[in-house]
Amino acid sequence: MTTVQDSVTSGERHVGDAPMLIAGEWAEAADGQWIDVESPRDKAVVGRVPRAGAEDVNRAVEAAARAFPGWRDLRPRDRGDLFRRIADALEPEQERIARLLSLENGNALRTQSRGETQFVVDCFRYFAGVAGEAKGESIPLDPTVLDYSRREPLGVVGAIVPWNAPLMLSALKIAPALVSGNTLVLKLAEDAPLAALAVARICQRFLPEGVLNVLTGYGAEAGEALTAHPRIAKLSFTGSTAVGRRVMAKGAERIVPVSLELGGKSPQIVFPDADEDWVVDGTIAGMRFFRQGQSCTAGSRLFLHESVFDSFVGKLVDKLSALTVGDPLDEASDMGTIVNGRQFDRVCDYISEGMEQSGVEVALGGLPPTDGPLAQGYYVRPTVFARVANDWRIASEEIFGPVVCAIPWKDEQDVVRMANDTHFGLAGFVWTHDLGAGLRTAHALEAGWVQVNQGGGQVLGQSYGGFKQSGIGREFSLEGMLDSYTQRKHVSVSLGR
Ligand code: NAD
Hints:
Blueprint: E1 16-17, E2 20-22, E3 25-27, E4 34-38, E5 45-50, H1 54-72, H2 76-90, H3 94-105, H4 109-129, E6 138-142, E7 145-153, E8 156-160, H5 166-179, E9 183-187, H6 194-204, E10 212-215, H7 219-228, E11 232-238, H8 241-254, E12 258-261, E13 267-270, H9 277-286, E14 301-305, H10 309-321, H11 341-356, E15 361-364, E16 383-386, H12 393-396, E17 403-409, H13 412-420, E18 427-431, H14 435-444, E19 449-452, E20 471-472, H15 478-485, E21 486-494
Parallel strand pairs: 1-5, 8-9, 8-11, 9-10, 11-12, 13-14, 13-18, 14-17, 16-17, 18-19
Antiparallel strand pairs: 2-3, 4-5, 6-7, 7-21, 12-20, 15-16
Helix pairs in contact: 1-7, 2-4, 3-4, 3-6, 4-5, 9-10
The structure holds nicotinamide-adenine-dinucleotide.
Nicotinamide-adenine-dinucleotide (NAD) binds at residues 160-165, 169, 187, 189-190, 218-220, 223-224, 227, 238-240, 243, 246-247, 261-264, 296, 398, 400, 426, 466, 471.
């Protein structure tokens, strides 16, 4: 078997077979089946990963269970040190891994994949730094009693991630779960497993056998087997709300704690005093256009005050028209591709439906070209639908593509009502010079993360997660690590005779 993960160079376009990690070894699936990984840039098969089934899941969970006592009993700061060393080893490999990521999931190298790979290094260092912070408390009950709490790891964590930011989301499971003393079985998304396997390969140089196990396979096979496994003590899932609901039901069968990071349809509210270029740039970033809108926090409902509606849409169209959609590996590309054919068809269906709505203005974009270089891959141009009603399907369902719906508003209370009229509650963005209006609106939005006058990505140390059907639990922070990956135990000791 070609273990190509170590040998991918910047020029390579085919990476061969990439085995998965079980019990410290690089393994094929027990039944020998493989999944082809297609690059969305040109639809070429760029590698294969094992198609894990229940037997592989069982092997991985058993290995993690065997590794748990030794790993749990390691001094927390020693666990942190290992992650510091992993981060150091990753740093010189960043460019190679970033290219692999762009190759497999179509995100542009310059605007996305390099930053995502840097995030992994930062994330490992952040959690290495807080490794000793899983502290308990003592309670002043009585001079003759010592009553204190400990934070203990849960055991074997089963984690599942999607394809849209596979490195960032894998790092956000691996680091907090392991630093706090759990062992882990991580299932990667079938569409983008290669870069995360490359990171796992570096982790494995430092971690004891079985502490980290990384599986590749389909959700209906490996994913289902993992969520049903009786030795899993905690489930941590990032993906769609539909699958999250299923994961939660599986956890409920065995009363296993579940963390969910799910979908969104986040609002961006532009006040009449914010019809300015920097705000347009901010809303483009907030809509995650540079990631083709394939982000859970994409601000895809753009509420523009009626008095500046046409002017703002005009500026938005000018700026989006200047973006280069192209080969994700090309330094000139601002935007790459949609991840796969299924997702591409889904996005196109939403675009077709939007174009047919009565009263809609297609301010920019539309269906992708059917010939020319962009037709060779899953490229979709930025699309702006204007004068959209908040209850249309394109404004209420998560499209997960570069499609923004501009919706007019007149009254502050009314726009907040529209913004909150969704079962999602992940993120929100408010754009105004009026501090009072900005903060009033931020507080009124039913979302786990609201930004005022900025449209950036999550930052380590924030307590990030969703309200409503966008999720349960928090990631990105020490607090998230403690809540998601430790459990409290109280010890009560009588000091009297
Ligand atoms: P998905 O839910 O289809 O798949 C996510 C993962 O779950 C994949 O690894 C898949 O193989 C697995 N899976 C599928 N069916 C399963 C099952 N029955 N049991 C167990 N596992 C199963 O989502 P996707 O299309 O890969 O990703 C896009 C979705 O992820 C969007 O809804 C997006 O908003 C969400 N997302 C959320 C966050 C967040 O932080 N809240 C971050 C990124 C993506």
